[in-house]
Amino acid sequence: MENFKKFLKQHEILSAFMQIFLFAFEVILNFYSSFYFFLRNVIILVLIALATYIILDNDAYLKGFTDKVTLPEPEIVSVRCDDHSSNLSNLEYSTRVITSIRNLGGEGNVVVESKVQQGNQMWTKSELLFLSPQQTKETQITFDETSIFGERIKCSSRTYSYSK
Q1: Any alpha helices (H) in 58-145, and if so which ranges?
Q2: Does residue 78 surpass a pLDDT of 90?
Q3: For residue 93, which of 8, 69, 71, 148 is within the disulfide window of CB 3.0 to 4.6 Å?
């Protein structure tokens, strides 16, 4: 290092050039250090604004998130009883409760509970379904307990979301 200093002192042109170089380097460092905190804060604010824009403006992202959080909201579209599957030759008789369900909420499990009443006897059965948002599905629950010689058959269904 001492040799380098002696060399620079002996050659005044190189010494002047080195002084100009060191002065320019010092100016650049001062400029950078004075704007470092300002630039850092601007970059942080831009990143926060960009993240906020992506989260609030991206409907597909929010829809996917809320579908997982929102429980299903099943709604019964129609219910009907059907005993046309009965076979009189073998004296087999059954009643099917056909229920159509629409999901107005998020995806998830839905329970369909059907009841059949014949005279003073009542039977209840249920079925578990998985429904996506806005999906409509039809389910059939068969009741073999009904009798062809019994009174008129009445059926009904109800539905609710199933959560663990």
Answers
A1: 59-69
A2: yes
A3: 148
**The pTM of the whole model exceeds 0.70:** no
Q: Where are the beta strands (DSSP E) in 44-163?
A: 74-82, 95-103, 108-118, 121-131, 136-143, 153-162
Residue with tokens 């663990």: 164
Enumerate the H helices of the chain as residue ranges.
2-10, 12-57, 59-69
Residue type, 89: S
The domain spans of the chain are 2-57, 72-162
Residue scoring higher pLDDT (4 or 105): 105
Model pLDDT for residues 53-74, shown as the tens digit of each residue: 777 776 665 565 555 567 899 9
72-162 has which fold? Immunoglobulin-like (2.60.40)
**Of 20-24, 97-101, 131-135, minimum mean pLDDT range:** 20-24
Taking the alpha carbons at both ends of the chain, their separation in whole angstroms is 76
Structure tokens at 18: 């080195």
Both tokens of residue 92? Answer: 């087999």
